[in-house]
Amino acid sequence: MESLYLLLPMSVLLVLGLIALFAWALDAGQFEDLEREGWRAIEGPACDEIDPGQAAEPPAFRQ
Using CB atoms within 10 A as the burial measure, which of 14, 41, 48, 50 is most buried? Predict the structure, then answer.
């Protein structure tokens, strides 16, 4: 029972820290362009040449 006096505040601090980290990521713009990195992984090094302002539309798949 005594361990709850230690574990409960630690878990609350952990949750508050994770919420603060998520709020920082939102504020820093980490989730602004989720599509570009996925397309860059598919296309390879050629996608590095694309200007971030032009990446509004994903490239077409080659067949």
Answer: 50
CA angle 53, 56, 59 (to 5 degrees): 115
Phi, psi dihedral angles at 35 (to 5 degrees): -75, -35
Q: Is the pTM higher than 0.70?
A: no
> Mind listing the pLDDT tens digit for each residue in 14-48?
999 999 999 999 999 888 887 887 787 787 665 55
DSSP 8-state code for residue 61:
P
Q: How many whole angstroms separate alpha carbon 8 and alpha carbon 46?
A: 50
Give the Cα separation of 44 and 31 in Å (integer): 21
